[in-house]
Protein: Glycolate oxidase subunit GlcD
Amino acid sequence: MAHQTLIKDFEALLGAENVFSSEADRISYAYDAAVLQPVIPAFVVRPTTKELLGNCVKKLYDNGITMTVRGAGTNLSGGTIPDTSETVVVLTTALTKILEINADDLYAVVEPGVITAHFAAAVAQKNLFYPPDPGSQSVSTIGGNIAENAGGLRGLKYGVTKDYVMGVEFFDATGEIVKSGSRTVKCVTGYNLAGLMIQSEGTLGIFSEAVLKLVPPPKASKALMAVFADVQNAADAVAGIIAAHVVPCTLEFLDNNTIVRVDDFTRAGLPREAGAILLIELDGHPAQVADDAAAVEKVLQANHATAVHVPKDAEEKLKLWEARRLALPVLARCRPTTVLEDATVPRSQIPAMVKAVNDIAAKYKLDVGTFGHAGDGNLHPTFLCDRRDADEFKRVEEAIDEMFDTAIKLKGTLSGEHGIGTAKAKWMEKETSRGTILFSQRLRRALDPKGLLNPTKLVGI
Amino acid sequence: MAHQTLIKDFEALLGAENVFSSEADRISYAYDAAVLQPVIPAFVVRPTTKELLGNCVKKLYDNGITMTVRGAGTNLSGGTIPDTSETVVVLTTALTKILEINADDLYAVVEPGVITAHFAAAVAQKNLFYPPDPGSQSVSTIGGNIAENAGGLRGLKYGVTKDYVMGVEFFDATGEIVKSGSRTVKCVTGYNLAGLMIQSEGTLGIFSEAVLKLVPPPKASKALMAVFADVQNAADAVAGIIAAHVVPCTLEFLDNNTIVRVDDFTRAGLPREAGAILLIELDGHPAQVADDAAAVEKVLQANHATAVHVPKDAEEKLKLWEARRLALPVLARCRPTTVLEDATVPRSQIPAMVKAVNDIAAKYKLDVGTFGHAGDGNLHPTFLCDRRDADEFKRVEEAIDEMFDTAIKLKGTLSGEHGIGTAKAKWMEKETSRGTILFSQRLRRALDPKGLLNPTKLVGI
Structure:
């Protein structure tokens, strides 16, 4: 079927206001937050109900057209870049209903297009807590969070999106509805397809609903900022805190480059001379928080922290976390291209990884700002460069290669939370095995027989 | 290849002491803990290293022979009953090495045949904690726990086996090695195959290694036994505790039938007149435990508990939990056949489910003892019967049908922690959808093209 006929068909199905086919519209959906070549899709559809979402998938399947599902497009590995110029982008952004927040049973049921921060706020209003807080939470969608298994600042104590998905409902490539998981805290009925769908990057199905776990909110919390002259001391302190069996809610690291640039932008009064700072949040029962804070301060002193600041009120605390959340956007302003990595290592290896990142950046003469979820072993070395400078960009690529090799040598992983997409597919076999790639490809071909769901992503089709 | 030749081959590969082909041996592996027809396998192999395990799988694959992997055979849904008399049972019980317990990074690496309780004890020796504690932990293996996603008494606060699997390595049906997950707390490299393998019941691959998450142990704990004259009051108290945002480590329910029979056997001094008791354990920071205990006692009083006992020392506490752990074996002694179910509902529906179980048992004139993980919404109604009494067993089957219908109506699930196996396969579509079954079967056929891995289990091949 020619595109024009198909567009008319979709307009009839969804209403003309939910089909985008002008050039300007199509260009808007050609890229995501990854540094990769944009691909302009054929057109874009925005179903407004679950049933219409299913109809869209079925129609695209029947016509043999590739589809890239997209929430807010914040992902960092190219998972929402259309596969080809024939691809249709399926938006979930009109599926924004919170269907249920069950305070007695501590779960919620949502449509995939619900914005993470809106959902967290709705949950908080009922005096409950949805912990996953990816950096993009103010715009990212729950469907995207699940498809990428999004992390966030609270991963250390509370885990990542995966740990809050109790069940999913999705349309498979053929438009059939599949359900897995339950509103119960335990469910072993059939394969753990909900688990499989997490981090499947839009290649196995398109979510129509998710059941998410909620928890009672912590009764108290305390934030600390620890300042270090030496970056390695900060890294050692991270390993020390975990080894002391304290599990902070959040344990974030910012190196000097990041500190200076965030302070330039925010005038937040960050310690510009510091080699690194750690931002720590403890939460839980008030007595637990007090004990943990004492244990943490001891570790910080033992690792030569030059100062430990405790925000004096909620406003000052908010400012501190805002400074952390601004790390990426502020670094991104410095040069035309920002390459944000997320190689992750066991937490005790943070000192080795911090050293390796700095050595590699020096070797390849690159400007790097490193920040991230140190408590999870998950750093974000951010290379500031210009993609148009072929020599510099080649050095960035070589540096990343070397960084991944280091992460794997330290028994870590290519990607803690950003996904594989098209950006990291070539490294996958090195971390896993040939058998893993073959197994994954067989799985995928069986579940998407025509190869229509984001076919160039992950292990390919 | 004729069996005799193949047996010789395996004896050469594994040593004669690791191949079991006598009738007595084969009969020992014909059944598991489910009430289902035994099937005597062709023979049984016990590889002693990971490499030999891989060789076994490859040899069976090449010869087109079906294989049933087996740890301790404690599963309750028939997952370890051989498929046919041609099936070879692959034992993991010689793969018992704990390869690493990493106290700095809070993980362990184990072989699949490690016994759950041995592992938990080794971890405790390093002042760490592995929470999953299935009822069969003293004999069950970690490989079996993962294949069934085993639950246990601590599910309410700490989750189930799934929540502690960071990574797995396994041989697929063809004998290729597949790896998924990592020693890091976050990993999104490729499909979440570790998630898929959990609760896959030996149908997608055979584990060779697992990376398990450990946590710091709680600093304090407190146990309580609450006595209720009326079973519904006990059920209401369960829902009340969760609604009060207290998350006990354990929240167990025993009905009168179970109490009396356990007390007959143990002389533990249980309240034989009680309609039901709740056994509750709170753990965490000492101040948190004290606050939680006060909140729980308030809920218990509001729901007309006639007494609340606190064990006066560790020995008395141990006795209490022993009484709970004896519920199943004691009920099992009463009649020739014990049918233990695990339909699970959202926690607020526990009062409705307890009522339904008793109404159904009365309607079908059956002897039922109900106990279980009430805090998880996961009850174990246990029908005491005699399979040889065709009329009685038909009533049991009808009662179970009705119980599953009720669980699903209450937005629950067929199986909280025991699995589908062959026992519950016929009910799966009712809870999920036709699309779910088709999707699962396509997935399975692609990953096990010759249909050799436990082919009659779960959704079939």
Remarks:
- Chain A touches chain B through 91 residues (CB under 8 Å).
- Residues 147 and 200 of chain A are 5 Å apart (CA to CA).
- Residues 390-409 of chain A form the longest helix (20 residues).
- The two ends of chain A are 23 Å apart (CA to CA).
